[in-house]
Amino acid sequence: MPQTNPRWDIFCTVVDNFGDIGVTWRLARQLVAEHSVQVRLWVDDLRAFERLCPEIDIQLAQQWQQGVEVRQWPAEWLPVDAADVVIAAFACQLPAPYMDAMAARAQPPLWLNLDYLSAEDWVVGCHGLPSVKYRHVQKYFFFPGFRQDTGGLLRERGLLERRRKFQQDASAQREFLQGLGVDRAPGRQLISLFAYENAGLASWLDCLASDSTPSHMLVPEGRILGDVERWLGVEGLAAGDVHVRDGLTVQVLPFVRQDQYDLLLWSCDFNAVRGEDSFVRAQWAGRPLLWHIYRQDEDIHLDKLEAFLTLYTKGLTRPASEAISGLWRAWNAGVTMSDHWLATRKHSPELQQHAEAWCLEQALQDDLAAALVQFYVNWI
């Protein structure tokens, strides 16, 4: 590293409750822990942050959490010196006085727009390219991704080894689940469900309830609970509630911090996830998954969905590929899931093997934090 302990500023505006802050909080912690840099994380909504990090004091303008300096992004910006590396997460607009501070530095900072994750072909061509300038300060595009010549995915050092040990330790899994109040009965498939509102959920739950293989669905508190309530015919579901209908047990879990959510994903046989952060973590779990992508205007999110499916299903037999792709498309369209779920269940062994192979393949790339640090080293 050409400079000892370079200073990094990461700016995050909370758009979708937990996705943006989830990514930036993971990134900030990893930069501090593994790359010995100083990080200030500027967040405009500490209440959302508190769900991921309960130690946060939402009243404080400045505090330190796990080695990261957390700063409240104030409505009225107070002057601060610009850092050596400035990351605008997901195209958020930096405060005008801060941009002036960047331009006032003798050595301009490296200014990066950390963009949303996508498997689309054009990402490879745009990654690392110059973007706009502010005075003489140049901004660059930085794209996470699934291919070489992108920024890779967030992955902490030793993550897959910790996951492997946990998944091979039945007592560790049992202890973790019991800590959440979950008793896993032998022979039940365990499914996690973290999703946006979805009209297709009822048909999936109907199918699970009537399946000859019993299922136990774990639902962390979140936006999908309203659809679960309607299917169960109850109101006011809360953490700890358990309902059984035929072969399906539905259990509501508390919203857990990120490290516990990883363990939840590692414990389950199948994971339904949403957005970006949980989507990536489900891939590191090495288990079959179902992605509820964040909806965008004019359905452009569906292009991202198809681009990922094109990459992800390589190596699968045609029937298995059609089954999992059909399930994802139905889920994201909010239509009937039953036939697609039954087809997916038929190919469970192949999809399980493929999920692990995909995980290991992605781990061959540099992780996102390491790629960002290397980009800075090359730039400086």
From TrEMBL:
Keyword Membrane applies: no
So where does this one cross the membrane?
none
Question: Carries keyword Signal?
Answer: no
Q: Which UniProt keywords apply?
A: Elongation factor, Glycosyltransferase, Protein biosynthesis, Transferase
The Gene Ontology terms for molecular function here are: translation elongation factor activity
* A Pfam family reported for this protein in Swiss-Prot or TrEMBL: EarP
From the UniProt record, list the reaction(s) this protein catalyses.
dTDP-beta-L-rhamnose + L-arginyl-[protein] = N(omega)-(alpha-L-rhamnosyl)-L-arginyl-[protein] + dTDP + H(+)
NCBIfam families of this UniProt entry? efp_Arg_rhamno
Give a short account of what the protein does: Protein-arginine rhamnosyltransferase that catalyzes the transfer of a single rhamnose to elongation factor P (EF-P) on 'Lys-32', a modification required for EF-P-dependent rescue of polyproline stalled ribosomes.
- Would you identify the family this protein belongs to, as annotated? Belongs to the glycosyltransferase 104 family.
Q: What is this protein called?
A: Protein-arginine rhamnosyltransferase
